[in-house]
Each structure stands twice: as structure tokens, then as C-alpha cells.
Amino acid sequence: MKTAQIVIGLGFGDEGKGITTDFLAKQNPESIVIRFSGGQQAAHTVMIGDKKHVHSSFASGALRGLPSYYSEHCTIHPLFLYNEREELKEKNANLDLYIHPLAKVTTPFDVWHNRGNTRNIDHGTCGKGIGSTMKRNEGPYKLFAIDLIAPREMLLEKLNQIAYYYGFLNESGIDEEIQAYLEAVDKLKWNIVDYTFLLKYDNLIFEGSQGILLDMDHGVFPNVTYANTTSKNAVEICNKLKIEDVEVYYATRSYTTRHGHGWMPNEREIKLKNNEEETCVFNEYQKHLRFGDLDYDLLNYALKLDAAYSPMAKRNLVVTCMDQLEKDYEFENLTTDFDTIYGSFSPDSKDFKQITSLFQ
Amino acid sequence: MGGTRYDFGAREDRAKKVGYASKSASEIFTQNALRKAHESMNPNGVIFREARDSEVHPNTVPIILGLDVTGSMGHIPHELIKEGLPKLMGGIIQGGVPDPALLFLGIGDHECDRYPLQVGQFESGDEELDMWLTRTYIEGGGGGNAGESYLLAWYFAAFHTKTDAFEKRGQKGLLFTVGDEPGLKTLPASAIKEIMGQGQQTYTHLELLAEAQKRYDVYHISVLHSGQAINADVEWKELLGQNCLSIEDHREIPNVIKKIICDKHKSSGSGLGTIPVSDTNDKGLDNIQML
Prior knowledge:
The complex is a heterodimer of chains A (about 350) and B (about 290).
Chain A (H helix, E strand, L loop, with lengths): L2 E7 L7 H11 L4 E4 L8 E5 L2 E5 L12 E3 L4 E2 L1 H13 L6 E3 L4 E2 L2 H9 L1 H5 L7 H7 L15 H14 L9 H13 L3 E2 L10 E5 L24 H9 L4 E9 L2 E4 L29 E4 L3 H14 L4 E7 L19 E5 L7 E3 L1 H4 L1
Parallel strand pairs in A: 1-10, 1-11, 2-5, 2-10, 5-7, 6-8, 7-9, 11-14, 14-15
Antiparallel strand pairs in A: 3-4, 12-13, 15-16
Helix pairs in contact in A: 2-7, 3-5
Chain B lengths: L7 H11 L6 H4 L2 H4 L14 E3 L9 E8 L7 H19 L5 E8 L9 E3 L6 H10 L15 H10 E3 H6 L3 E7 L6 E2 L1 H8 L6 E2 H9 L2 E8 L3 H14 L3 E4 L5 H15 L24
Parallel strand pairs in B: 1-5, 2-3, 2-6, 6-9, 9-10
Antiparallel strand pairs in B: 3-4, 7-8
């Protein structure tokens, strides 16, 4: 019987979806890892011994040797993807990447628009063009993964139209960037395959993006992401493939974080240790990572919400960064029953510990 | 909209009571404290703003005033509410045009500002006009790029207004933008979609100007208070010729607008805001709404 595990962030992102995905990849080495929301903005860190990679356009099984799949709900940017592929090549990772024909493709125009628009920056963009791509794809100027393998004239015409949509009319200086973009399109081998391809695998690992509290329908507008970050999309794909044995792994840090503007409860400085490997650092668009205490009410909210999208699934909890804080946890405040609760005690998934009995 | 008359006495009493003369801009423009535009001025989803005739105003003259609310232009709405508005409306009415209907637009920059376009409604009454003007959020941003999105005013006038003046009488309205920067040269479909909630076509400034000029006489009032503004003025003159009015003191704005409207009224054979003598029944297809 085919099985699936879905990794979901319970907060505002940066909960440890990378390490959790790697934990599952290690136990299920014959799986494929599927991205089902977001895109090239992901920064999912996996550390295996002294090897480390921040996965973005590849799924977080790549370093462990698993192939990646991008579903129709995701965006891809060929140049970012190419650059990451080069990095991963040096780390002897699995470079196999399969993409659904209807995955949305980001262009340099989307990225410029994303970075040049003050409103986007206010809303907490990370400047990788995802929001612009999703919005553009709601209108007539669409670009899908399948278009990357369409006859070149057609792709060029579509890019021309997207330039027009953003108001780039006969401007000099954009040809060079488009050139690099098209070169990346040429250099990559595009495996464009629909969901039937996934039937080859007995186990699917679904890697979420961001977190439930940034979901486009459930986060606090306007500081939300343009994606369904709950298990909604993953469960839909499982249903299409008739996979019934589904487990959700909910990831949270042992404290609350938020990277970017917008509402967050009980924000305050907290004292951390062992966090030298933190990859979520200051950037120009989102500024500093923000911290706060773990909010059990908010966790209960996110868990109950997600269950609405995945009613039949078994549920597990993963609490990352437990080594970074000396604190008594109050997981007995959680109203969801879990099959298993794990804690992570280093940036390497080998230090996951089962802590179920402590709290249930 | 448009069912009330401009009442100077009432305006004066109210202005005193509210304390327009003594209050600071941030006390009058209450959206400034909230740092966001008033929801009623959000153009997203607005199909049309209409200037219709009524019993009180049988011959409306639609006037659009697009105020740059960025940077140093942000004090102009304050000046208007203190004393400019009665001067403007009073001047027009005393000049022989009894039915002006005025629509305020707040103009920013579609690349840099959070609220690049704010829209009021066509109004003739003093209280309503005060309301829309003071609801405007003076974002005060601007910046980065070389220009403001004055062409949003042209876009809105061209595609999102309907007037009885044009539909019934074949008379153009008047569209004024006020600012101190050059206009941007392109309005991308992406920006229109984001601001209006719909839009698939990218326009150049020339295309939009031509569209707006179908139903409005288009003017720009160039406020020459900096070197940059003087450079911008050259561009505006090239684009609009004598329809670019240059002033050094922004307090002249009401006089300039009043003069244009009243001159136009006098010079046009039939008179602006009066029923043309020609046969008003025969307007061919122009009067039929094409849906």
C-alpha cells in the first residue's frame, strides 16, 4: 500500500521543515520529495554531518539523495534553479528534479516587479518574485513549466508579453538578464511530468513551504504569502493518487519566530544557545528574524485548522531547536492527540528524539 | 452625489466650528494618523464615478482635480481645505458656471507608494467636497524614481467616469493634475490590475492622454518651487503646450482653475454648463450606452 508523509510548518515559517523532511527521507530512502506550495523563496536547511545545504528550488531530500518533484501549486525560476543545481552537484546530491506541466514559472520581470514595489516589501516579500508570478498567472499573461519545452518562438513571445504586462517597453539593459535566463533554460534538462509519474514511488514525502500562519486564506492580511500552506494541496494530490495512508508531521520551533513584517504575538527578545547554524538571517527585504515565546493557543489554532484540510490523516508533532532554549515545555496544553512527538536537539536530523511519553 | 449646492455661508460656519484654519494637517486629514487610505477612496473595484445632472444642478460641469499627495505636494490639500476650496467653487459659480461637480483624486507613485490612487466622487455641495478632500490620505511618499503617476488620473478619467455633460450635451469636462514632478511614461497592466482590480493592457502616457482627451480637456498645473520642478515643467509644456499652467505659489491653484473654467465658459459659443442651442435630440449613437 502506498504511503505519504506531509511536512507542515505550524507558524510563520522557519520552523524546521527542512530538517523534518530530511528525517523522513533518511527513513524512507526510496521516496520522492514533493513540493506542494511556494517556490524558490524556500530556505530549508538540511545538515548531514559536515555537509549542509539550504534547499530552495530543490526539495529537502536532495542532499540525502532523493529526487525532487514540483507540483502545479509551486513556482520555479530557471536561473535560481540552475544556480542551486550547480551547488548541489558539488555536494554530490541527487539532481533529479521533475516538474508538473502546470507549475508556474517566474521571469526576471516578476522579480523586478516584486522588488520594485513598496507594497510588496511592506507585506514581507523576500524579493524572489513569487507573489508577482502568482498574481500575473491570475490574468492572461501566464507562464507554465510546459512552456519551457514549448517551441522556442512561443516561449519568447510569451516572455515578450510578460514584459509588456509589466510595462517594459523597448527598454535597453533588460536583454542581458533575459539572455542569462534563457541560457539557464537551455542548460537544464526539463523533466516535465504530471502526477501519474508519482505512482512509480511507494512512499511520497510532501514538503510544505512557509507556515500555516502565513497561509493566503488564514494568515493576517496583507502580511501573508500567496500560497496554501496548509496540507490542502498535498491531500488533494494524495486523493488524486488514491493514497489513503497519510501522516502529517507538524513542525514548530521550541519558540516562535517570524521573518518579515506583520502581526506576531508575544514578540520579545529571547536568549538562545547552540544556534550558530541559524540560516534565517538578516536580509534587505525582510530584515531581522523576530522572536517570541511559544504560543500554545496559536499552535492549537493552527492544528485544528489544518485538520479541516486533512481529516483522515494521522498526526505527529516535531519540535525543533529544543537544544537552544532552557525551558519547561507545556505540550500538555495542546488539544490535538499525536501519534508521536519528536524533539530535535541539533541541526542534524540524527539528533531527533522521540519524546512522546513525556507529554502524552 | 451632486444633489446639493455649494453654500459659502454654511461652509464658513462649519470651517470655523471645525477649526480648519487653526488645525494642523494631521488633525484635519485623519487618515494620516492611521497611515492608510480611507476604504471609500480605494479605487479597487470601482467601475464608474458619475457626474449626473439633477434638479438642483441641471447642467453639471464635471471637473476632476488630481492632487499629487506625495512629498512636498502634500500641503496643497491642507491649503485647499483652509481657504482654497471656497475660493475655487465660489469663483467658478460667480464666474457664471452654476453647476460645477468636482471630483478629487489623490495621486502618488504606482512604483513606490502604497496608495498611488485615491478617488472621491463628483460633488457640488460644500460639505461633501470637504469630506472627500479631508478623507484623502497624504501619504507623502514619492521618491526613488523620476516622476509621479499623474497618468493614473488620466486612466481613471478615461475609463472610470461617466458624465451627463458628455453623454447628454457632448461637452467635455475638465481634468487638472497638480504637481511638481515629471509624469511617468508608462502605466503597466500589472500596476493597473493591482490598483483597480482589473486591467490587461499597458499604456504609454501618450495613449492615456489621448484617451482622457476624448472626454476631458486635460490640464496640468506645474508648481515651480524647486529646480527639479522647473525641469519637469519643460517636459509638461512639451506634452500639453498651453494646457500646462505654471505657478510659483501653490495658493494660486484655485484662481488658475477658476479662470480656465470661466474663460472656457465665456468663449465657447454655447457656454459651458448651459444647454447648447443646437438640436439636442440628434446625437446619433453617441448617447447610447454600448454594453
